[in-house]
Design a protein that fits this description.
Number of helices: 7
Strand order of the largest sheet: 1-2-3
Shape: flat
Radius of gyration: 25 Å
Helix content: 55-70%
Oligomer: single chain
Length: about 200
């Protein structure tokens, strides 16, 4: 990318004797710059993501990896939605003047989200819920506990933390450096790139 920018800057600076043309190469339209009779192709390249190949030793490990891919793909849209909605709600909350206005706004947003997603979220497994908690931390840079505490208060955060603990989860879980989190991150990058 840097090389492309440097070449582009060089061509722009020596602009007296250059022409930009559009031509076909193998039936594909490309841009080129003609400088002093030499034609140089100009192209924008997509970012390349290089990831190590997943090494899976046994069929059991392969089944677990495929299950993790399935679970991440299942909760990924909800994590992205949570990140976007949290940013939107946080920005709007700053514009509200009184605590009463903020509470009413939060109740309105909560009602909208429950009407739209409650049935889908009820169908998530405990494992998918655990992964969603981690992905919400990844998307919002806040643990789920802190999100609830900020938007609904300490009592609600403590209540939902207790419910999560009953099912073996923890709303204070952070997306970190654990092996599973690295695999989840690699899977998310592949999903974002359209590779999964």
């Amino acid at each position: 990318m840097i090389m492309f920018l440097a070449l582009t800057a060089l061509f722009i600076q020596t602009g007296r004797s250059q022409d930009t043309i559009r031509m076909e190469l193998g039936g594909v339209p490309v841009d080129a710059v003609v400088t002093d009779g030499d034609t140089v192709l100009v192209s924008m390249l997509d970012e390349a993501v290089i990831q190590p190949k997943v090494k899976i030793a046994t069929t059991r490990d392969m089944r677990q990896y495929r299950r993790l891919v399935y679970n991440v793909k299942r909760v990924y849209p909800y994590a992205k939605l949570a990140g976007a909605r949290f940013a939107e709600v946080s920005a709007h909350m700053d514009s509200l003047e009184t605590r009463k206005e903020q509470r009413e706004y939060i109740k309105q947003i909560e009602k909208e989200i429950l009407e739209k997603y409650q049935e889908d979220l009820k169908d998530l497994t405990i494992t998918q819920g655990r992964i969603l908690i981690k992905l919400i931390d990844r998307e919002t840079s806040e643990t789920s506990y802190n999100v609830v505490k900020e938007l609904r208060g300490s009592f609600q955060a403590a209540f939902w933390q207790a419910v999560a603990r009953i099912f073996g989860s923890n709303l204070k879980t952070e997306f970190g450096d654990e092996a599973e989190d690295k695999m989840i991150n690699d899977i998310m990058v592949m999903i974002e790139r359209g590779l999964l």
